[in-house]
Amino acid sequence: MTPGGSAVLVAAAVAAAGGIGSVARYLLDTSSPASAQGNWWARQPRGLWAANLLACLVIGAAAAVRAPSWHLVLATGLAGGLSTWSSWIVGARSRWAAARDLDAVTRRSERRSALVQVLGQAAGGLACAGLGLALGRLVLV
Protein backbone atom coordinates (compact mmCIF):
# COMPACT_ATOMS: atom_id res chain seq x y z
CA MET A 1 0.00 0.00 0.00
CA THR A 2 1.18 3.47 -0.75
CA PRO A 3 0.27 6.74 0.96
CA GLY A 4 -2.05 7.47 -1.97
CA GLY A 5 -3.58 3.97 -1.88
CA SER A 6 -7.27 3.37 -2.21
CA ALA A 7 -9.25 4.30 0.90
CA VAL A 8 -11.30 1.13 0.53
CA LEU A 9 -8.16 -1.02 0.35
CA VAL A 10 -6.69 0.71 3.41
CA ALA A 11 -9.96 0.30 5.33
CA ALA A 12 -10.04 -3.41 4.43
CA ALA A 13 -6.44 -3.84 5.55
CA VAL A 14 -7.17 -2.02 8.84
CA ALA A 15 -10.19 -4.29 9.39
CA ALA A 16 -8.17 -7.43 8.63
CA ALA A 17 -5.35 -6.34 10.95
CA GLY A 18 -7.92 -5.49 13.65
CA GLY A 19 -9.37 -8.97 13.31
CA ILE A 20 -5.92 -10.53 13.66
CA GLY A 21 -5.23 -8.38 16.74
CA SER A 22 -8.58 -9.27 18.30
CA VAL A 23 -8.06 -13.00 17.82
CA ALA A 24 -4.53 -12.71 19.22
CA ARG A 25 -5.92 -10.85 22.26
CA TYR A 26 -8.55 -13.56 22.78
CA LEU A 27 -5.92 -16.32 22.58
CA LEU A 28 -3.58 -14.51 24.98
CA ASP A 29 -6.35 -13.71 27.45
CA THR A 30 -7.80 -17.23 27.53
CA SER A 31 -4.39 -18.91 27.70
CA SER A 32 -3.34 -17.10 30.87
CA PRO A 33 -6.30 -15.78 32.89
CA ALA A 34 -6.07 -14.38 36.40
CA SER A 35 -6.42 -16.83 39.26
CA ALA A 36 -8.76 -16.20 42.18
CA GLN A 37 -6.04 -17.33 44.58
CA GLY A 38 -2.29 -17.20 44.89
CA ASN A 39 0.28 -14.47 45.06
CA TRP A 40 -0.10 -11.03 43.52
CA TRP A 41 1.18 -12.21 40.13
CA ALA A 42 -1.10 -15.27 39.98
CA ARG A 43 -4.08 -12.97 40.51
CA GLN A 44 -3.04 -10.71 37.64
CA PRO A 45 -4.68 -11.18 34.22
CA ARG A 46 -1.39 -12.14 32.55
CA GLY A 47 -2.95 -12.62 29.12
CA LEU A 48 -4.36 -9.10 29.32
CA TRP A 49 -0.93 -7.80 30.30
CA ALA A 50 0.66 -9.58 27.33
CA ALA A 51 -1.95 -8.24 24.89
CA ASN A 52 -1.67 -4.65 26.10
CA LEU A 53 2.13 -4.62 26.25
CA LEU A 54 2.41 -6.23 22.82
CA ALA A 55 -0.02 -3.62 21.45
CA CYS A 56 2.19 -0.87 22.88
CA LEU A 57 5.23 -2.44 21.20
CA VAL A 58 3.36 -2.56 17.87
CA ILE A 59 2.11 1.01 18.12
CA GLY A 60 5.61 2.18 19.02
CA ALA A 61 6.97 0.47 15.91
CA ALA A 62 4.09 1.92 13.86
CA ALA A 63 5.21 5.41 14.90
CA ALA A 64 8.40 4.81 12.92
CA VAL A 65 6.54 3.88 9.72
CA ARG A 66 6.58 6.68 7.16
CA ALA A 67 3.74 5.43 4.95
CA PRO A 68 0.46 6.70 6.45
CA SER A 69 -1.55 3.71 5.23
CA TRP A 70 0.81 1.23 6.86
CA HIS A 71 0.75 3.29 10.04
CA LEU A 72 -3.06 2.99 10.04
CA VAL A 73 -2.92 -0.76 9.46
CA LEU A 74 -0.43 -1.34 12.29
CA ALA A 75 -1.61 1.26 14.82
CA THR A 76 -5.36 1.42 14.28
CA GLY A 77 -5.85 -2.14 13.05
CA LEU A 78 -3.38 -4.52 14.67
CA ALA A 79 -2.60 -2.61 17.88
CA GLY A 80 -6.21 -1.43 18.20
CA GLY A 81 -7.53 -4.98 17.96
CA LEU A 82 -4.87 -6.29 20.31
CA SER A 83 -5.15 -3.73 23.09
CA THR A 84 -7.92 -3.74 25.63
CA TRP A 85 -7.97 -0.53 27.62
CA SER A 86 -11.50 -1.02 28.92
CA SER A 87 -10.82 -4.54 30.24
CA TRP A 88 -7.68 -3.27 31.93
CA ILE A 89 -9.42 -0.41 33.73
CA VAL A 90 -12.69 -2.20 34.54
CA GLY A 91 -10.81 -5.24 35.85
CA ALA A 92 -8.68 -3.16 38.19
CA ARG A 93 -11.68 -1.09 39.30
CA SER A 94 -13.74 -4.23 39.98
CA ARG A 95 -10.91 -5.76 41.99
CA TRP A 96 -10.57 -2.57 44.04
CA ALA A 97 -14.33 -2.36 44.72
CA ALA A 98 -14.70 -6.06 45.59
CA ALA A 99 -11.91 -5.78 48.14
CA ARG A 100 -14.11 -3.72 50.48
CA ASP A 101 -16.01 -6.90 51.44
CA LEU A 102 -12.86 -8.80 52.42
CA ASP A 103 -10.92 -9.01 55.68
CA ALA A 104 -8.28 -6.32 56.21
CA VAL A 105 -5.26 -8.40 55.13
CA THR A 106 -6.91 -9.74 51.98
CA ARG A 107 -8.34 -6.29 51.19
CA ARG A 108 -4.86 -4.74 51.26
CA SER A 109 -3.51 -7.54 49.10
CA GLU A 110 -6.29 -7.17 46.51
CA ARG A 111 -5.94 -3.41 46.39
CA ARG A 112 -2.17 -3.74 45.96
CA SER A 113 -2.84 -6.16 43.14
CA ALA A 114 -5.23 -3.67 41.50
CA LEU A 115 -2.62 -0.91 41.78
CA VAL A 116 0.04 -3.20 40.31
CA GLN A 117 -2.33 -3.91 37.42
CA VAL A 118 -2.89 -0.22 36.66
CA LEU A 119 0.57 1.18 37.34
CA GLY A 120 2.47 -1.83 36.04
CA GLN A 121 0.66 -1.91 32.72
CA ALA A 122 0.98 1.86 32.31
CA ALA A 123 4.73 1.83 33.01
CA GLY A 124 5.23 -1.35 30.98
CA GLY A 125 3.21 0.13 28.13
CA LEU A 126 5.39 3.23 28.02
CA ALA A 127 8.52 1.09 28.03
CA CYS A 128 7.19 -1.20 25.30
CA ALA A 129 6.11 1.74 23.14
CA GLY A 130 9.61 3.21 23.47
CA LEU A 131 11.20 -0.13 22.63
CA GLY A 132 8.84 -0.54 19.66
CA LEU A 133 9.76 2.91 18.38
CA ALA A 134 13.48 2.16 18.70
CA LEU A 135 13.08 -1.21 16.94
CA GLY A 136 10.88 0.37 14.29
CA ARG A 137 13.50 2.99 13.54
CA LEU A 138 16.14 0.28 13.18
CA VAL A 139 14.10 -2.13 11.08
CA LEU A 140 11.30 -0.25 9.32
CA VAL A 141 12.92 3.00 8.24
From TrEMBL:
A single Gene Ontology CC annotation of this entry is: plasma membrane
Biological source species = Falsarthrobacter nasiphocae
Record's keyword annotation contains Transmembrane: yes
What is this entry's stated membrane topology? Multi-pass membrane protein
Is DNA-binding a UniProt keyword of this protein?
Answer: no
The identity of this protein, by name, is Fluoride-specific ion channel
Enumerate the InterPro entries for this protein: FluC (IPR003691)
Key words, A-Z: Cell membrane, Ion channel, Ion transport, Membrane, Transmembrane, Transmembrane helix, Transport
Q: Which GO terms describe its biological process?
A: monoatomic ion transmembrane transport
Q: Which chain regions cross the lipid bilayer?
A: 6-28, 48-65, 71-92, 113-135
Q: Which reaction does it catalyse?
A: fluoride(in) = fluoride(out)
Pfam families linked to this entry:
CRCB
> What family is reported?
Belongs to the fluoride channel Fluc/FEX (TC 1.A.43) family.
The record's subcellular locations are: Cell membrane
According to its UniProt entry, the function of this protein is described as: Fluoride-specific ion channel. Important for reducing fluoride concentration in the cell, thus reducing its toxicity.
Q: Name the predominant localization.
A: membrane
Q: Tell me the domain of life.
A: Bacteria
